[in-house]
Each structure stands twice: as structure tokens, then as C-alpha cells.
């Protein structure tokens, strides 16, 4: 009996030695997280800065501060990957590299993700509970985001700019030639104006009005309840204008902001449940993003509506049986 105990003890020590050797060895493979120079840090009030530094900067800036356990493999592999992805989506240390329209979209995307408890990542909060955002934090961020609303009541310059832009559009019937193509291969084309309107929405919190169009494939799928998943070939186009309010208090579309596209192709976009995303900014319809990661970032918000095939607004009524 004593001999058996010694044999078991010896095997346990050998097993412990192997595990220890592996644990020490993989530390040499731990990636280093470097902090590049801060070139154009977001300029906000002290209250907003405190929230961003507490909950966002460790991933979405060049001022990452790692805890000791963040540097240990295999955790360090996950941490380095998450930081790389987060910085590619938006970086508060390079904030002014984004256009005002992109800043608006990114900041409200961040707020929406926080309200739905998707950001900071639940996996991050388990080891960094101090980064959790509460309701007061989110309200402060929303108040700051109001600065992105371009037009104020009776803003004559905004009204005149919208009128000039519309006249140019009417004269040429197009903003860009040739048709632009996004980094992931989605081509802009103006025929969507002949599609059925799915929904029209106004987002006063970020100062925009939207009309959402759907092609025949997606309209039919919605009517028949064939939405999860949507069939290949489905296309949604959201057209976004900045809101203006004239001196009489009338709210209407102002200058053109962007068009946002969702294209269903299971083969081409397998990593985002078959949906390809694109955005074309301004009257020049400039394709958004510097790399593919910036386009797949859209999917983070759409994951919130998995039950409706990753599409937010589905107002078209089903056909009666």
C-alpha cells in the first residue's frame, strides 16, 4: 500500500513539473502590447474623460494600462487580440483622424453598446469590475454626445446649406461618379430609391433622420416571416440626413450624412452571419473604414437583434395566411 502511495505521489510531482514547465515556457510567447504615440486625443470635459479612461481607454486608446495578470499567457493572448481589434474600430488617442460624422456614429455606437451591457465586454469586467459603467456614467456620455447635433433651431446657415446641396443633387441626380466600392466589395448604386421603404425614423439624440429601403428579396422574406436567417441576396439601405430646424420650429432633413448598407451573402461574409456592412459618407460617398475590421464593427451592434435576423427595424406586416 505504501509503495502504491509513493508511485502516485511521484506521478503527481512529475505531472506538476510538466504543467509548471509549460506554464513558464508559454510566458516567452506572450505578446507585448505597445502604446503608440497619442496624436489627436479626444477632447472632452473632465467628467467624460474620467469615464472613458475608467471603462474604455485600456482597449480603445494608445494609453493602455495592463494589470499584472493581463500580461500572463494565455490571458495575454486574448488581451492583445482584443486591444488590437478595439483600436482598429475606434481609438480615442487618434480621435480627430475621424470625420465629424464618423465621430458621431462611433460615440453613439459606444453608448448603445454600453446601455445594452455589451461594452465593456463581460469577459473583461469579470477581471476588471472597476470598469463597469452605471446609469449615471451613461447619462453623462449622452449629454456629451449632444454636441454632435449640427443644427440648432433657426440655424439659417444650416438651412441654406441643405437647400444648396439639394439643388445640386436635383441638377445632377447623383453625388458621386463613378459608383464607389467599400473595402469588402459592396458597390454603391442609386437604384435603391425605387425600392420599398421599410421604415422612416428620427433620432433626435444624435440629430439625424433616416429612411430605410429594402430590395424585393428582403421585403418578401419579411412578409413571409422568413427572416432568421434572411435569404441570400437580401439588401438593406439606410439613408441618413442631418436634422435641421427652421425659425418656425419645423424639423426636416438637412445636409446629407451617409448611406449604410447591409448585404446578405453567406459565402462572402461568413464571420458576420452572412451580412456584409458598408457605409458611404457625405455627398462624395466616400467609403468608410481603413481596414476590414472597421466594417465588421457594425456587426457588434446588430448582434443585439439576433432574434430578428440581425436587422433592427422590421415594420412590414406579414401576409395573412
Question: How would you describe what is shown here?
Answer:
- The protein is α+β, with helices and mostly antiparallel strands and 321 residues long.
- Helices cover 38% and strands 15% of the residues.
- The protein is built from eleven helices and six strands.
- The protein has helices at 2-25, 46-55, 57-60, 75-89, 100-115, 122-127, 135-145, 156-172, 216-223, 292-296, 298-302; strands at 196-203, 208-214, 235-245, 251-264, 275-281, 286-287.
- A six-stranded antiparallel β-sheet has the order 1-2-3-4-5-6.
- Strand 3 (235-245) and strand 4 form a beta hairpin.
- Helix 5 (100-115) runs antiparallel to helix 7.
- The longest helix is centred in the N-terminal third of the chain and has 24 residues, at 2-25.
- It is globular and about 95 Å long.
Low-confidence stretches: none
Number of strands: 6
**Please, how many helices?**
11
Sum up the overall morphology in one term.
Answer: globular
Order of the strands making up the biggest sheet:
1-2-3-4-5-6
Distance between the termini: 76 Å
Helix and strand content put the structural class at alpha+beta
Helix content: 25-40%
Question: Radius of gyration, rounded?
Answer: 25 Å
Order of helices and strands: HHHHHHHHEEHEEEEHH
Mean pLDDT: 82
Residue share in β-strands: 15-25%
> Largest sheet, if any?
6 strands, antiparallel
Pfam family, one: Haem_bd
Protein name: Heme-binding domain-containing protein
Keywords: Membrane, Transmembrane, Transmembrane helix
Organism: Pedobacter jamesrossensis
